Amino acid sequence: MDIIDKLESGERLCEKDALALYDLDIFTLGKYAKRVRERLWGRKVYFNINRHINPTNICKDVCKFCAFSANRKNPHPYKYSKEDVLAIAKDACERGIKEVHIVSAHNEEHDLRWYIDIISEIKKRFPSLHIKALTAAEVHFLSTLGRLSYDETLDKMIEAGVESMPGGGAEIFAEDIRAYICKGKVSSANWLKIHELWHEKGKFSNATMLFGHIEKREDRIDHMLRLRASQDRAAGFNAFIPLVYQRDNNYLKTDNFLGSVEILKTIAISRLVLDNIPHIKAYWATATMNLAMVAQEFGADDLDGTIEKEAIQSAAGAKSADGQSLGDFLDVITTSGFIPVERDSLYNELKVYE
Ligand code: SF4
Questions:
Q1: Which atom of ligand 1 is nearest to the CA of 65?
Q2: CB–CB of 303/333 below 8 Å?
Q3: Distance in Å from the first CA to the final CA of the chain
Q4: Mutual orientation of helices 260-273 and 26-41 as an angle, nearest 10°?
Q5: d(CA 279, CA 132)
Q6: Residue 48 φ/ψ region, left for φ over 0, alpha for ψ in the -120 to 50 degree band, beta for the rest
Q7: d(Cα 311, Cα 72) in Å, to the nearest integer?
Q8: Tell me, what's the pLDDT at 100?
Q9: How far is the CA of 45 from the centre of ligand 1 (A)?
Q10: Which residue's C-alpha comes closest to atom 2 of ligand 1?
Q11: Is 106 close to ligand 1, i.e. is its CB under 6 Å away?
Q12: What are residue 333's phi and psi, to 5 degrees?
């Protein structure tokens, strides 16, 4: 059966099929990805109103692609106090923000107890805020630091009020590339194991993939297939988030230049390959707002959120430091022919802007 027949029949795609998708022209590929997206979500596009909080940029790790952590190229270390974080959460809550998204560098002064204290306090003072916190990379770091099993760490997070986990730290699963770009970080197998444990506890999370650096197409497909297999074992990924590599202010030099067509093809392929993950996110902070709008026609049904403050991607060159105003966000979605739907962090629909 050739690849078009498989796309027509909806048969699950294998590694060879997924790679062959890159050889299709972008309009054919887009047509099939859009068909899946519209079968699942029609013309709706999801977003939430969220606030990122990045409590510290002091990190014991040295990922080559990272421009967020304090180092020679970014000589501005900072760490928030608990009061700082609580003040941000209070301000967010008072302005109607529904989710705080807490991710950070691996700072040995901020151990699990530090996060648990803050998260419990946020939950106590602002119970309506959904707390999405701690990537699997952070869970690995904090578990190792505190000599706890992953299971124990995850249980403490749940007890404190963490409701979902972000998808960061996955980078690219291929071990050789991982060893070069983020040696020392959680292994691919453990990243997946942590998410599966989380899902087995009845909780949801997301999954990212950092692409456009030194990886090859084969590595992206391998990454997607490992996620698909993990979701088959222990479902709980709500969204797949392909993150376009930002090249400023870091130590990962590459001659690869990822054009819009390759980005859109990768988003479309993820929609077709990840048949068991409900949402594909066009993360505008790395893809740019304009390309994220086009990505809606190529399988993406989620635009993350207004973000408000973003420190990690903007440090590496993304134009996302101050987020988007809600008005602008709604305008660009509706003028691109889609229906904006404000969602909560678990994809329950809160408001349809028709
Ligand atoms: S990506 Fe995260 S773990 Fe790696 S250096 Fe940056 S802050 Fe540290």
A1: 1
A2: yes
A3: 42
A4: 50
A5: 17
A6: beta
A7: 17
A8: 93
A9: 30
A10: 105
A11: yes
A12: -70, -45
Q: What string of DSSP letters covers 98-162?
A: -EEEE-----TTS-HHHHHHHHHHHHHH-TTSEEEE--HHHHHHHHHHHT--HHHHHHHHHHHT-
105 lines ligand 1 (CB under 6 A): yes
Q: How far is the CA of 315 from the centre of ligand 1 (A)?
A: 12
Q: What are the tens digits of pLDDT across the range 11-64? A: 999 999 999 999 999 999 999 999 999 999 999 999 988 888 999 999 999 899
H or E element, residue 302:
strand 302-305
3 state SS of 34: helix
| Tokens describing residue 242 | 């392909």
The answer to whether the CB of 61 is under 6 A from ligand 1 is: yes
CATH number of 3-347: 3.20.20.70
**Which amino acid makes up residue 94?**
E
Q: Which residue has the tokens 């392929």?
A: 269
Q: How confident is the model at residue 313 (pLDDT cuts 50, 70, 90)?
A: low
Helix 188-200 with 136-146: angle, nearest 10 deg: 90
Question: Judging by beta carbons within 10 Å of its beta carbon (0-12, 13-18, 19+), is residue 252 exposed, middle or buried?
Answer: middle
3-state DSSP call for residue 253?
A: coil
* Token couple for 134: 């701690």
Distance (Å, whole) CA 309 – CA 315: 12
In this structure, the residue with its CA closest to atom 7 of ligand 1 is 105
Q: What is the DSSP string of 167-208?
A: -TT-----HHHHHHHSTTSPPHHHHHHHHHHHHHTT-EEEEE
149-176: per-residue pLDDT in tens? 999 999 999 999 999 999 999 999 999 9
**Distance (Å) from CA 108 to ligand 1 centroid:** 13
